[in-house]
Every structure is written in structure tokens, then in C-alpha cells.
Amino acid sequence: MKTLKGVFFFVFMIFTLGFSSTLFAQTPNLSIEEEVIALTYKIWKAEMNKNMTEMNKYLADDYTEFNPTYSTRVDGKKLNVTLSEAVSMNSGTILAAEMLNPKVQVYGDVAILSYNYAGVNQDIDGKLTNTKAKSTRVYVKINGEWKLAHANFAQDPNNE
Amino acid sequence: MKHIKLVTIIFLFAVIASNTFAGDKEDVQALINATADSFNKHDFKTYFSYFVEDNTEFPYVVSPLRHDAAMWKAFIEGTGSLAYVNYHGQDFHIQIYNSNSAVVTSYYTFTWMEKGGAMNYQSGRATMVAVKQGGKWLVAHMHFSKMF
User: What was the pLDDT predicted at A19?
Assistant: First the structure.
């Protein structure tokens, strides 16, 4: 009986260890802070590749945006997609997109990412332009996925 | 009969859900009004009671510098030396998520007068992020930017 108990315990431990190691192997070891920063870089990569479908799939349906192009708020995913797709027709290229001084505040299923944007753009004639901005992105977990609910992209006044 | 019951249940659920949602928006609007009122009255103790402890802000239209809670406190208390301040927000748009977070966007005018000085005026766009903590809506982040 003691031997049988020992065998059961051994089998139980094998299952437990095997199950937990599988879990560890499958769970990406990213904090929410790292996750939203990584997602932002993923969005930028899609934008640099002019893959607007990939870029816009992370927008919430009621996404709102303040940006340096338009004075007032741009409301809704549909309108933002229309405008961003039109902008992507531009023959210029984004060569670099980085965030400086990033900070992520997490409160349950909302994450606020604020940072200073540093970018390098190249126009069709090869002219390079540095872009500076102060930005806020608000990500919200909707149906288990982080979606961008709002962004305030404000030009760095020192750009002018 | 079965259908009537089902429709009634769905209707009641929709009414309750919409009331809950409306309540959150009203509560967030009350927070917006309370922060502006206390700031304009130089009632800083009340003003800071509406913020989470680790709040952050992009406060200036003319600077890219982000403030943490201590910097924001120093900045706001510094406005106590002004003879007059008036922050006025308008055209508020409130997005509520999961009944515990809110994104508020608006436009604002800020008027102030230094003691014995002339009036100053600024206008811009504002983002506020509020979160519910212990059943109370509090400000977690604000971003003020100019009208481009």
C-alpha cells in the first residue's frame, strides 16, 4: 500500500511538473508595461512598412485622436483609418521611430503610455527630417486584447 | 409567452446597463467640474484629493516635459501666487471602458493675471484619463497641447 501511494505521488509530481513547465514555456514573461511598449513598436513597424491594416487593427472602435495635423479631435476608428490610409500614400518613408523617456501607468485593464517621440523621416527627394513630439497613448483591454482607445500626439513646441 | 419573457428580460437588462453607463459618465463629468472649481478657487487640498498618487501630466503647451505627481503639485501650488486664474473646459467627450476607466477629451481656455500685472490667455486641447479606485473616480493623467 505504501509503495502504491509512492507510485501515485511520483506520477502526480511528474504531471504537475510537466504541466507547470508547459505553462512557463507558453507564458511570455512580459510585464504589462513591457507589453504595451512592445505593442507600440509593433504598430510603428507596421506604419513604417505602410501596412495600414496591421497598424489599424489595434484601434478600438471608438478610438479618438488629437494630432498635429488637425486642430480638433478625430473621432472613431473609421475616420482615423480613412485619414491614416490617405497619409500612407505619401511617397516619404519613416526611417526611425523611437520613444524617449517612456512611462507606463497601469490601473487594472487600462494602461497609459506617455513618452517623447523621436523620429526620422525621409521625403521623396531624400531629405531627412527629425520629428519630435510629446505623446500619450491610452490602451484598454477589450475582450482580452489591448486596444488603443485614445492618443494625444502633440508636436514638441521646440520643433517649430 | 416565452418570447415576451425573454424580450422583457433583455429590455430590463438594456435599461439597467444604459443607466449604469450614464452614471459613470455623469460621475466623470462631476470629477471634471470639481477639479476645475477647486483649481479656480485655489483650493489645492481639495484639488489634489481628486488625483491618484502616481499621477502624471504633460502640463505645458510650450514644453515637452512630463511632470510626475510631485512636480505637478509644485506647479499647481505655484499658481497660488497669481491674483486670478480661470480654467474653463468645453465640448467634453467621455469614453468609458469596463466601468473603471475613462478617457476625457476637451478644449480649454486658461486665463490668469499676475499680481498687478496684465491678463494672460491660453487655449488648447486637453486629454484626461480617470480611473475608478475604491469606488471613486480619480485623475491619473492629463495632457495639454496647443491647437495646431
Answer: 47
Task: Tell me which residue of B98, B71, B56 sits closest to A147, measured CA to CA.
Answer: B98
Query: Quick check: helix, strand or coil at residue A134?
Result: strand
CATH code assigned to B2-145: 3.10.450.50
Q: Where are the domains positioned within chain B?
A: 2-145
Shortest Cα distance, chain B CAs vs residue A134, angstroms: 6
* The CATH fold of domain A31-159: Nuclear Transport Factor 2; Chain: A, (3.10.450)
Stated pTM of the model: 0.83
- Give the integer Cα–Cα distance in Å for B42 and B18: 36
**Contact at 8 Å (CB) between B66 and A118?**
no
Would the ipTM clear 0.90, i.e. be above it?
A: no
Binding-face residues of A in 70-129 toward B, CB within 8 A: 70-73, 75, 101, 103, 105, 107-110, 112, 114, 116
